[in-house]
Amino acid sequence: MMIRNISIVILSMLFFACAAENEKKEKTQNTSEIIQNPAAIDTAYFAGGCFWCVEASFEQIKGVKEAVSGYSGGEKKNPTYKEVSYGKTNHAESVMVLYDPTVITYEKLLDIFFVAHDPTQLNRQGPDVGKQYRSAIFYRNSKEKNIALKKMNELAPKFEDKIVTELTPFTKFWKAEDYHQDFEKKNPNNRYIVNVSRPKIEKVAKTFKDILK
């Protein structure tokens, strides 16, 4: 019995030693990645109607690592698509843009945002009507706010109608259900994608052809 107990102790020591070594390697790898990429990936948050359109518009741009569909600007925690689409949460269909600031600037993301949708439509985008489809920029700090204000003032004369984009402090982003992520890529023949999303995505591609992936 004593020999068996000693064997168990030795095996346990080896297991924890291996686990500690793996954790050490993982931390070393993470540190190495940070050193090789000193500029951390940054984030920006926008709402411009259906998030399928906005997400796909950004994901084709160099420097954008990923665009994630979700909900922001409301009070409800863990909102569902059904709740948001029925206008019960005050959230807007939004997109979190993860980007490399050494490749693309926040200002350039704003340029793309204002091409990807119509910022003069109040609480709607085309066939989608309701505050959940409003145009909004969720700024995280005074720098982003000032850049957005400057951009809106610069672009105002280029639109026949007044820009109604909301400039709102960022609070929380709730990731949308999995089936919404990369919806345009997964459902290229969907009628909404073909008739509503695709023209917007192609407009962005044409306008920013020099920075497409």
UniProtKB/TrEMBL annotation:
InterPro entries: Met_Sox_Rdtase_MsrA_dom, Met_Sox_Rdtase_MsrA_sf. It is an enzyme of class 1 (oxidoreductase). It comes from the Bacteria. Residues 43-192 form the Peptide methionine sulphoxide reductase MsrA domain. Keywords: Oxidoreductase, Signal. PROSITE patterns: PROKAR_LIPOPROTEIN. Its EC number is 1.8.4.11. SUPFAM superfamilies: Peptide methionine sulfoxide reductase. NCBIfam families: msrA. Has an important function as a repair enzyme for proteins that have been inactivated by oxidation. Catalyzes the reversible oxidation-reduction of methionine sulfoxide in proteins to methionine. This is Peptide methionine sulfoxide reductase MsrA. It comes from Marivirga arenosa. The gene is msrA.
